């Protein structure tokens, strides 16, 4: 049995608007003033009808491909915690972009030596670059034409031409330090390809180098934890905390939930969470830049605030 594809006319009927209004909303036309309530109604109708845009037709009409790239930098032999770290972020970002009518193309790049030929073969309307080494950033960004929005995630990059979406770690540390476990005797930081971000996070702890552990493998973490069994500690990411909880009482851990899955933590651990706000913030910024590339926020760093959830 062949299932009939939903059309703009079907969406217009379901949303009780004109076909033209549906076209304006789905194509993100900025020259038309459409009430937010109407936009939401159209997008919800498109979702309920499982509408799939004709990307080939859209590309011919708008000179756009309808493709958004997510470039995740991966280190050799990275631990399972890094392999899983960005899954919630990518899943939520893909959901938001798909609902808006875009198709998402996910690329895994060698963080040390990114191969970029396959990227050059794709005509992307916008790009997210995740956890990138500073020395490789301009090599990657140069592969995209002027006018293609490129947003950097989880990285400190000294280039005012590009927007960066990061967690507000200063805010998160303030919440952690207000918890009953403070002051902390040590901190465990997830390994980042962007070493500037890792160094910045370490500096916020106020601890000496011997009290800061950069998680690269469980064996070195177990050695680090052997002298910390009676101290309270702070872990950056849920996965780092789960490994640490093998060696210390989880009731002595506060966790800044940078992976977006706080529910996997032991109940006794204190959680500082960001929810899905990083994906939401990155998505909203991309949509704004796609519509008006020169009308982004004044601040090149978009920081996502944290909340304590227990």
Automatic annotation (TrEMBL):
HTH lacI-type domain segment(s): 6-62
GO molecular function: DNA-binding transcription factor activity; transcription cis-regulatory region binding
Transmembrane helix is among the record's keywords: no
SUPFAM superfamilies: lambda repressor-like DNA-binding domains, Periplasmic binding protein-like I
InterPro entries with a match to the protein in the record: HTH_LacI, Lambda_DNA-bd_dom_sf, Peripla_BP_I
Keywords from the UniProt entry: DNA-binding, Transcription, Transcription regulation
Protein name: HTH lacI-type domain-containing protein
Source species taxonomy: Bacteria, Bacillati, Bacillota, Bacilli, Bacillales
């Amino acid at each position: 049995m062949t299932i009939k594809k939903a059309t703009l006319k079907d969406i217009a009927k379901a949303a009780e608007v004109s076909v033209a209004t549906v076209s304006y909303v789905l194509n993100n036309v900025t020259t038309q003033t459409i009430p937010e309530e109407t936009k939401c109604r159209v997008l919800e109708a498109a979702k309920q009808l499982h509408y799939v845009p004709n990307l080939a037709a859209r590309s011919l009409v708008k000179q756009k491909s309808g493709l958004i790239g997510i470039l995740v930098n991966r280190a050799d032999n990275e631990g399972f915690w890094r392999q899983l770290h960005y899954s919630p972020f990518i899943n939520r970002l893909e959901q938001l972009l798909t609902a808006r009518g875009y198709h998402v193309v996910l690329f895994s790049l060698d963080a040390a030596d990114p191969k970029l030929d396959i990227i050059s073969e794709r005509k992307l309307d916008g790009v997210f670059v995740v956890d990138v080494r500073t020395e490789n950033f301009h090599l990657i960004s140069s592969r995209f034409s002027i006018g293609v929005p490129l947003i950097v995630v989880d990285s400190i990059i000294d280039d005012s031409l590009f927007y960066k979406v990061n967690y507000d770690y200063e805010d998160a540390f303030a919440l952690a330090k207000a918890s009953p476990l403070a002051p902390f005797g040590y901190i465990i930081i997830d390994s980042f390809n962007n070493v500037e971000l890792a160094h910045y996070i370490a500096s916020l702890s106020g601890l000496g180098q011997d009290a800061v552990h950069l998680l690269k493998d469980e064996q070195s973490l177990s050695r680090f934890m052997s002298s910390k069994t009676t101290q309270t500690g702070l872990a950056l990411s849920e996965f780092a905390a789960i490994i640490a909880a093998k060696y210390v009482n989880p009731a002595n851990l506060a966790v800044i939930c940078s992976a977006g899955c706080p529910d996997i933590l032991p109940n006794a651990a204190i959680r500082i969470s960001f929810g899905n706000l990083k994906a939401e913030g990155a998505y909203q910024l991309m949509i704004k830049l796609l519509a008006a590339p020169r009308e982004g926020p004044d601040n090149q760093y978009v920081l996502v605030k944290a909340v304590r959830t227990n």
